[in-house]
Amino acid sequence: SLASAPKAALPKVASPKPQKGPPPSPERLLGMNGAAVTGLLGAANLVRRDGDAEIWQYRNDHCVLDVFLYGPGPLSVAHVDLRKRRRGTQKKTACYAELASKAHAGG
C-alpha cells in the first residue's frame, strides 16, 4: 500500500505552488481591512480622508490604483479603481503586479 511505501517510492505530483506576493488583480482587495492592504501593497503614496471613508492611492510610472475604504468602525475595502496614467504602456494587470511587488521589494 502507499501508506507503507517509503516516500522516495511515491510518484512526484506537481502541486500548485502557494501564492506568494500580490494577488493577481486589485479586485482581490475587496473586503480587506487596511492592515491587509498595507501588507500587500505597502504604504499608500497618498491618503485622503473624507468622513467615514479613506481613499488610498498607489501609483507608479504606468498606472494609478485608488483603494476606497469605508467605515463606520474598522475600515474595509469597498471599491478599487485601477487606471493607466497618460503615458502608461503596461497592461493594467502587469501594472498592478508591479505596484504590489514593489511593496515586497521594500521600495
Describe the structure.
The chain is α+β, with helices and mostly antiparallel strands and 107 residues long. It starts with 33 loop residues before the first helix and ends with a helix. It has a 4-stranded antiparallel beta sheet with strand order 1-2-3-4, with helices on one face. A hairpin with a 5-residue loop joins β3 (63-70) and β4 (76-84). It has 2 helices and 4 strands. Helices cover 20% and strands 27% of the residues.
Q: Output the structural class.
A: alpha+beta
Number of helices: 2
Report, as a whole number of angstroms, the end-to-end distance. 51 Å
Order of helices and strands: HEEEEH
The total beta strand count reads 4
Please state roughly what percent of the residues sit in beta strands, choosing from under 5%, 5-15%, 15-25%, 25-35%, 35-45% or over 45%.
Answer: 25-35%
Low-confidence stretches: none
Helix content: 10-25%
Tell me, briefly, the overall form. Answer: globular
Please tell me how large the radius of gyration is: 19 Å
Notable traits:
107 residues; 2 helices; alpha+beta
Summarize the structure.
The protein is α+β, with helices and mostly antiparallel strands. The protein has two helices and four strands.
How do the strands and helices of this protein lay out in sequence?
Elements: H1 34-41, E1 46-50, E2 53-59, E3 63-70, E4 76-84, H2 92-104
Antiparallel strand pairs: 1-2, 2-3, 3-4
